Amino acid sequence: MTAALPRLAVVFDFGSASPMTILASARNLADVVFLCDRDLPHVRPLIDEIRALARVADITGLTDDEILAHPDCAALAGIVTFSESQINRAAALAARLGLAFLDVDTAAAVTDKYTQRRMLAEAGVQDTTCRIVRDPAGLGPALDAVGLPAILKPRSGAASARTCTVHSLAEAAERWRSFTEPDAGPGAVPPSRTPVRAPAPSSSSSSCCPAMRRWPGRTGPTTSRSSR
Fold this sequence. Notes:
- By secondary structure, the protein is an alpha/beta fold.
- 30% of the residues lie in helices and 15% in strands.
- The protein has helices spanning 19-26, 47-53, 64-68, 87-97, 104-110, 113-122, 139-146, 169-180; strands at residues 7-11, 31-36, 55-58, 76-81, 129-132, 150-152, 164-166, 195-198.
- It is elongated.
- It starts with 6 loop residues before the first strand and ends in a 30-residue tail after the last strand.
């Protein structure tokens, strides 16, 4: 008799590998259950398609304890997410069950790009000039501190959404408006979460900083992958 595969919960959202890719990778290794929140705009149109492929636990409106009490979450052997926006939720669920994952404090740090940069600097790994911009009035002082060209990006986000190089205060202000206005669409950035910074040339900063940054010694547009 074939032994049952260990059950693996995948917290699904924007930026994740596709359900087909996840299932193909887990074939003969794990019994996958997708944790899907229909209140999330990326998940809502896909939930029926995912349900046709695999086990789905609808976690819409549920607390962490209620999620873990869901019948499809019984006897979980692991929890994972491939979506940056769900790292904190996955960490909280894993902590409740004592499963391997980032601890809650680490999850909070890796999903806050400004905190990431501060911790890297404190550890002597890399010191990237960063400034948080909470409203349009803060763009000028941030650019003065960081220099131009600079990178404007959300303090938290995934897949380099709403990330761009700016070469002037006017361009930064225009980008700010396009990123934060209500009709900006999925991935729009609440103003309180948009920062600014400046990284070192060796940095792969596309995954780790707040909003504006400048490459030391550069006078032209930033073209490195970390500017994406």
